[in-house]
Structures are given as structure tokens and as C-alpha cells.
Amino acid sequence: MNISMCMKRNIVSIPDTYTIRDAAAVIVKKHIGLLPVVDKDDRLVGVVSLRSLLSLELPDFVNFVADLDFVHDFGAVETTRPPAEVLDNSVTTLMSPAMSVPEDAGLLRTYALLLQHNLHDMPVVSADGKLVGIASRVDIGVAILSTWAKRD
Amino acid sequence: MNIPAIFSGLIFVISLVFIFSEKIHRSIAGIAGAVFMVGAGKVLGFYSEEAALGAIDFNTLGLLLGMMILVAMLEPTGFFQYLAVWAARASRGKPVRLFVLLGSITTVLSMFLDNVTTVVLIAPITILICEILGLSPLPYLMAEALLSDTGGVATLIGDPPNVLIGSAAGFSFNDFLIYSLPIVAVAWVATLILLRYLFRDELSKLPENANAVMSLNPAESLDDPKTARRILVVLGAAILLFFVHHLLHVSPSFIAMCAAAVALLWVQPDIAEMFKKVEWSVLIFFSALFVMVGGLEAAGVLDGIVGLMERLSSIPPLWFGISLIWIVAVLSAVVDNVPITIALIPVIRGLGEAGMDITPLWWALAFGAGFGGNGTIIGSTANIIVATLSEKTRTPITSSLWNRRGLPVMLVTCVIASVLYIVLYKTF
């Protein structure tokens, strides 16, 4: 079994001409965690994650203070929004380099890559670099576990 | 000039260029320079391995190491975080009150502990407090760096130049309290008032949600109260002993190492983890500078400089001291004040041997090296630390901001030091 047998094929992606605000709107509408960014030839150029979008709103101290248990109220931070000029920037300023696997990639290998890179979704690309699917940890995990049901 | 003087001078200047340009790490430049100096000394016959070892001031190193060990053990207990959280609650979210409280805590800590550690541990909590209040952390971060630099000048153990000067001049802990503390106290209050004025716009903005700081729980922010209590007891005892070290005929470094030994025995921390927090690179950098300056001295370079300065002896000693404050201050604003201090110590000692009254000059060196660091964003390590930390936030401290807010502090503190130097000159 390989990744192409468990990945989702009806994928939502955005062109690299979108702004950060546009990308956030797509994520809200489709209720997804990872948004692939493609060029005009449908080739994968990067990904925008829910996490990187939220980092725009997360306060700076979260990166410096290891243990936040003693902070019971985030106060002003709870209601601050990222400034408009940041949201109007091109999505390419926030996007991370795309990690991807080919269609014939093994399930365990793909799962291990997700674990190592602390990711939840893996884009799958064809031999010519076109985005053809996305496999989540759940997609891959379920596909692996399904083989356990068969007794030898 | 003879060959050894030319060679040793060149080695020292080239090493300093590398240290100040920060192209390579200062400890690496220091080790390389020290090795070259000893090598050249052996070939040309002006310096030996024994002389190089003798040039290292182990009193300075012992004091620094002892205090570093105490701080390395105190750091993971969350004590610094506890103090900042306490300050936030005590301020009830009022900006000026928060500004004074955080500034005062940083100052008191940095009078007895390393400025850098103090700022490294207080600054992140400052950013937290400001963010939940909806305030810009810039005035608070800059005040912490500037006030800790200023406060550190007050005590023998407050900053590295003082440790060096105290050891070289044989000043006791109390000498600093008698001669330096009063001047620093005036300079500190002036710094606070000046910063309050320079940041008047930022500090007049009231927080959107002052209640958020009241939800911070200091007790929860203290991770290991038992260890914190033990180390504070040892630290307190050490500070008491510093007051009487000259009566006991022991050096401050012996007290610091005793305190480190007692704390280690009492707490028995994970030794590998604890030693990671000790700044070995600083100790190595100091040792390397001692070895290099020892080489300069052995080659007769410093005698030459002393000779040159003696020709200036027609200048009244008072103005000699004032000039020293300003020259050292300007140098300390643009480059690291530790090499400047280590290089000037034998020069001042040489002037003393030539018959000049050098006690006032030691104080001039301490004030210049201490207050000069306030002038630029790279003037002191504490400044570099808050600037680097703020670069990772949405409101970075820029060099031009520092020039507008930090440079006035340097000028005012140096003017105050100069005026009080003139007034108190006879007492030195």
C-alpha cells in the first residue's frame, strides 16, 4: 500500500497571488489546517498552515516564557488583531517551503516524516511536480491500522 | 621602540580589532591572541609561560566564577520571574509605577548579581506583563538595561570592570559603598527621571486591561521555592561577609567561592546542567586578556604609555581624572569595557609607581567604564541582550531609538559623575 491509496484527492489550494487575509478566509470556509499554495501551472510552491497564520496573533512572550501556568488571563492580547498591513501582505511572505512526497511513497515513511517535522498534513505531488493530493496523520494512520484487522 | 614592544603591541592591537569587530567570537580571538603573545614572548625572550600564568588575576576569576555558580543555581528556581510578577501585581497595572518597580528590582539584583543574567531573566517576563496590559515593552526593556548598567557601578561585585578595579586597586566591598554608591545613587535617580521624561508619551498611555496583571500568581511562577530559599540564604550570608571581608583578611573571591561551595553542598544540583549555565567563555576571555596585557607589560609597551602620560603631569590631577572618565566612557560606549579596563589597570598602576596619587584615577576608570556603556545599543552586554530579545518581537529596539533615549542617559550620568568627582575629589 502506498500514499496515493489513502490521500484525499479533492484538495483545496490557493494561487500564490493571494494575500494572507484571502488565505485565512479560505481556511475558515473549508475548515482545514493546511493550505497548499500553487503557481499558475498547478505546481506546489509552498504551504500555509493554520499554525503559521495564528502565529501572527499569538503574543511574543509565548516564545520566551517556558511555563505559562501562572498567567491566568492574557488580558489585552486576547482582543488584539494582527494589523491590516500585515494581513494585506502576499501569502508568500508567510508560507513555508513545501514538504511533499511522491505518489508511490510508503505509508510508514510518510508518517515518520510528519512526526519528525511536527506536521499534520503531507502534500503529495506527481512526477512533474503537480499537486495531486493531501494525506493527513489520520488518513495515513487509519490506512496502516486497517491492515491489522486481517488475521494471517 | 624595541622589537618585543612592536611585536606584542601588534598582537594586542590585532586581537582587539577581531574582538571589537565581532567577526569572530571574542573568546576565540582572545585565546589566539594570548597564545601568540606567549609564543612571541618565548621566541623574543620577553615573556614566559610562568609569567603568563602570573599575569592572570585569579581573584577576579574566582569572584566571577563563585557568583556565576550561585546565579546558575538560582536561575532555574524561577526566583527572577517571581520578582517580576510580584512587581506587576504591586503596580496594579499603572505604567509609571510598573516602570519604577521593574527598574528598581533590576537595579538591586544587578548590584549583587551579573547584569546580563538579571536582564536575561527579567526581560521575557517584562514582555509578558506589557503584552497582557496592551503596552509597548520598549520603555521598560530599555530602562532595565540602562538602570542595571548604572546600578552595577555601585558595588564591587556589580559589574566586571569593578571586580577588576577592586582587585587591582585593593578596594574593599565597603570602599565601593562609601565612594561609588553615593555617586551612583544620584546618577540612578537622574537616569530614572530622565527616562520617565524621554518616554513620557509611552508611559502616559493607560493599559487597556489593568486587571489582567492581578490574575498573575507569583507563587505559581516560583518553580522551586525550597532551592530558591536555600540559595538566597547563602547569597545573603555572602553579601554580609563582603561587608567585613577586609576585617577577616580574606578576598572577595574567597567569599564567593565559599558561598558557591556551601550552596552546591546544600542543594546538590545536577552538576552538568548547572555548569552549562556558567559563562565559561567570559572567564576564558578575561584570562586571555590578562595574558595578553601581561605580555604588553613584560615587553615594556605599558611603560612607554606611562612615560607618555607622565609628560601630561602638568595637567592638574583633578582634570586628569575627569578626562579619564570621559575618554573611558566614550570608548566603553563603542567597544567592550572589559578589555579597556584590563589594559588601563597596569597603566594606572605604572602612574602610581611614578609617584602620582592614583586612588582617584581608579574611581574615574570605574565611572567611565560603567556609565559609558549606556551610550549605545552595543555599549554593554545588557543592552545587546534586550535589543536582541526585542528583535524577536513586534516592537524591536533600533540603534537610532537607543541613540535618542540611551545616549542622553550616558551623557547625564557622566556629567553627574564628573561634577560629584570634582566635589568629592578631596575625599578619594
What's the topology here?
The complex is a heterodimer of chains A (152) and B (428).
Chain A: E1 14-15, H1 20-30, E2 34-38, E3 44-49, H2 50-55, H3 84-87, E4 101-102, H4 107-116, E5 121-125, E6 131-136, H5 137-146
Parallel strand pairs in A: 1-2, 4-5
Antiparallel strand pairs in A: 2-3, 5-6
Chain B: H1 3-21, H2 26-44, H3 49-55, H4 58-74, H5 79-91, H6 95-112, H7 115-133, H8 138-152, H9 160-169, H10 173-198, H11 200-204, H12 211-214, H13 218-221, H14 225-244, H15 252-267, H16 271-277, H17 280-298, H18 301-310, H19 317-334, H20 337-353, H21 359-372, H22 381-391, H23 399-405, H24 407-424
Helix pairs in contact in B: 1-2, 1-17, 2-17, 3-17, 4-9, 4-15, 4-16, 5-6, 5-7, 6-7, 6-8, 7-8, 7-22, 8-10, 8-22, 9-20, 9-21, 10-24, 14-15, 17-20, 18-20, 19-21, 19-24, 20-21, 21-24
Count of DSSP H/I helices of chain A: 5
Which regions of chain B contain 5 or more consecutive residues with pLDDT less than 50? none
Count of beta strands of chain A = 6
Give the number of domains of chain B: 1
Mean pLDDT of chain A: 91
The counted number of beta strands of chain B is 0
Average pLDDT, all residues of chain B: 92
Query: How would you sum up the major sheet of chain A?
Result: 3 strands, mixed
Q: How many strands, which pairing sense, and closed or not: the largest β-sheet of chain B? A: none
Explain how this protein is built.
Helices cover 27% and strands 17% of the residues of chain A. By secondary structure, chain A is an alpha/beta fold. Chain A has one domain: CBS-domain (Roll), CATH 3.10.580.10. In chain A, strand 1, helix 1 and strand 2 form a beta-alpha-beta unit. By secondary structure, chain B is mainly alpha-helical. In chain B, helix 9 runs antiparallel to helix 21. The longest helix of chain B has 26 residues, at 173-198. The radius of gyration of chain B is 22 Å and the shape is globular. The two termini of chain B are 36 Å apart. At the A-B interface, loops of A face helix 7, helix 12 and helix 13 of B.
